[in-house]
Amino acid sequence: SSPRAHSVHCYSHGSHETDEEFDAVWVTYFNKPDIDAWELCKGVNTFVSYDLVPEQLNDFASAVHILEALKDKAGPHREIYPYFTQELRPTLNELGIFTPEKLSLDNV
Questions:
Q1: How far is Cα 62 from Cα 67, in angstroms, rounded to an integer?
Q2: Strand, coil or helix: what is 66?
Q3: Selection from 48, 51, 78 nearest residue 66 by Cα
Q4: What sign results for the dihedral spanned by CA atoms 98, 101, 102, 104?
Q5: pLDDT at position 57, please?
Q6: Does the residue 69 lie in any domain?
Q7: pLDDT values of the chain reduced to their tens digit, one per residue, 108 residues
Q8: 61: domain CATH number?
Q9: DSSP run (H or E) holding 102
Q10: At what angle do helices 19-30 and 37-49 cross, to 10 degrees?
Q11: In which family does this protein belong, per the annotation (predicted)?
Q12: Could you tell me which residues come within 8 angstroms of residue 102 by beta carbon, excluding any fewer than 6 positions away?
């Protein structure tokens, strides 16, 4: 059999974590039955800082928060966010999810 690449996450505090360990930690985190809005936002923000997006967050507020994070992450590259929303439009429409702009959250 051919050798398999094995990814390891390294942190400034010296610990190492395989992809499987990393995934297990975050699956456990997001599957907590008592997770509150603050913990959810913290987790999503951490994911965005890693350039990751959590899957299966069946929650309207989380979806809008991820769109806000996408817009923020695009920073000065103003053409990126409209492209993302254009590509996501069919899914957003199917799920009944509005963009932060449609909800007037960009004016807050």
A1: 9
A2: helix
A3: 48
A4: positive
A5: 61
A6: yes
A7: 333 333 444 444 446 778 888 888 888 888 888 888 788 778 877 877 777 766 666 677 777 877 887 888 777 888 888 888 898 899 889 888 888 888 886 665
A8: 1.25.40.40
A9: none
A10: 150
A11: Belongs to the cytochrome c oxidase subunit 5A family.
A12: none
